[in-house]
């Protein structure tokens, strides 16, 4: 049985209507030609969601949001509910990204509430977990933290919802322009640990993807890791052509290594 490969991107607070259109043209074409080979998703800023839903129609590329609120509606100025995202055909929601944890004080408990709302409304949740620099290299402390992030986010989740979860392992020290390269030897055992814990708690084969400074240079190597189910790309996917290149290299490696 061949494994499903996931390739996704989070645009963060980047891109414009014009650049989104150009991106969708490149990536949509690639996605149409590779349907069934990989599962592709994009998470733009909120106002670009309808544009991408239109531009990517028929390509099977899933369009997601970068955040949501757990309540259905109410006095939460500036927030968007999971309910409204589902009503506007959003496929998935990103939760627990390191930037939201650090800059917006999102705790594991808050992420749990959001996750529950997302799956209740029939969407997929892409749950980010990852250790920061302070525990890098300390296997015991790293595993404790990863387990805690994962367990708190999914506690009391009904087993039937586990098919809607994708876990993104994103070590904080590897995200963005920090000058640190993700090396397979630094992430291999953490990915395996996450896969084992996720499958155990959620009683399902949960996809685990890797994110943090993925490039066209390192994507093939990363895809050789036995427990990886795909890649989550940030700044190097903002150019649609580069993202297509990364997918081409990564998917050929992923398929060959099955
Ligand atoms: P990066 O971002 O690829 O730019 O490091 C990854 C992420 O934050 O998901």
The largest β sheet comes out as: 8 strands, parallel, barrel
- End-to-end CA span: 9 Å
Oligomer: single chain
Q: Going across the biggest sheet, name each strand in turn.
A: 1-2-3-4-5-6-7-8
Gross geometry:
globular
Helical segment count: 9
Helix content: 40-55%
- Helices and strands: which structural class? alpha/beta
**Distinct ligands, ions and cofactors found in the model:** 2-phosphoglycolic acid
Number of DSSP strands?
8
Question: Beta fraction of the residues?
Answer: 5-15%
Contiguous runs where pLDDT drops below 50 for at least 5 residues: none
Q: How do the SSEs run, as a string of H and E?
A: EHEHEHEHHEHEHEHEH
Key words describing this protein structure:
258 residues; alpha/beta; 9 helices; binds 2-phosphoglycolic acid
Structural commentary:
By secondary structure, this protein is an alpha/beta fold. Helices cover 41% and strands 14% of the residues. It contains nine helices and eight strands. The chain has helices at residues 17-33, 49-55, 82-87, 98-103, 108-120, 139-154, 184-202, 219-222, 240-256; strands spanning 6-10, 39-43, 62-65, 92-95, 124-129, 165-169, 208-211, 230-233. An eight-stranded parallel β-barrel has the order 1-2-3-4-5-6-7-8, surrounded by five helices. The protein is globular. The relative contact order is 0.15. The model has no long low-confidence stretch (mean pLDDT 94).
Write the layout of secondary structure elements.
Elements (H helix, E strand, L loop, with lengths): L5 E5 L6 H17 L5 E5 L5 H7 L6 E4 L16 H6 L4 E4 L2 H6 L4 H13 L3 E6 L9 H16 L10 E5 L14 H19 L5 E4 L7 H4 L7 E4 L6 H17 L2
Parallel strand pairs: 1-2, 1-8, 2-3, 3-4, 4-5, 5-6, 6-7, 7-8
Helix pairs in contact: 1-9, 5-6, 6-7
This protein binds 2-phosphoglycolic acid.
2-phosphoglycolic acid (PGA) binds next to strand 8.
